[in-house]
Write a structure and sequence with these properties.
Strand content: 15-25%
Distance between the termini: 29 Å
Number of strands: 6
Order of helices and strands: EHEHEHHHEHHEE
């Protein structure tokens, strides 16, 4: 089974986490790997860790993450963490490490559900070849693994191989009115 959450709106990672929590509650072994994300202050990192669902990040983090995590500073959305993860010298190595890690988990049959969060960025920026991803997805028997792929601009070339394809786009969001996110709710 392969599920994709893509689109320009919010909720892609959140939808994947919803599936992760449901699967975990049913006794499934769940792993979430974040490609080109390294902000250790994120709610998903803290929440999944508390539940016992491993979340492994392969990305450059925010230099303010310690203060943001404790509430001393608020994420301003400066994008520095994303810019660093677009540096080809850094990103290519991180993506290849993430890919090798996931492949090893598939070969060991450690997990029942594997979430590849923000995998579309690795594909769209040329840090991971689409055929590499296809080989990975086919390495886990369809009966054994449920794959969940997230990220904006998921390559349409994958659509024929995917069982569930969600395109999430905002119709209305408080950010457009300048309303900031609230810790523990929106970010």
């Amino acid at each position: 089974m392969i599920t994709v959450y893509t689109g320009q709106g919010k909720g892609k990672t959140t939808s994947a986490i919803g599936e992760a929590v449901f699967a975990y509650s049913e006794g499934k072994r769940v792993l979430m790997v974040q490609f080109l994300k390294g902000s250790t202050y994120s709610g998903e990192h803290i929440g999944l860790n508390r539940l016992g669902i491993p979340l492994i990040q392969f990305g450059v983090g925010c230099r303010w993450s310690g203060m943001i995590r404790t509430g001393l500073k608020h994420c301003t959305g400066c994008g520095e963490c994303f810019r660093e993860n677009r540096n080809p010298e850094i990103a290519l190595e991180l993506v290849q490490q993430a890919f090798a890690f996931v492949l090893a988990q598939v070969e060991k049959k450690t997990y029942d559900v594997i979430i590849l969060d923000e995998i579309s960025h690795a594909l769209n920026r040329g840090f991971l070849d689409l055929n590499q991803l296809r080989e990975l997805l086919s390495a886990g028997s369809p009966l054994h693994l449920h794959w969940i792929l997230t990220g904006r601009g998921m390559p349409a070339a994958l659509e024929s191989e995917v069982d569930n394809w969600w395109d999430l786009n905002a119709l209305k969001h408080p950010f457009s009115k300048g309303i900031k996110s609230r810790r523990g709710i929106e970010y």
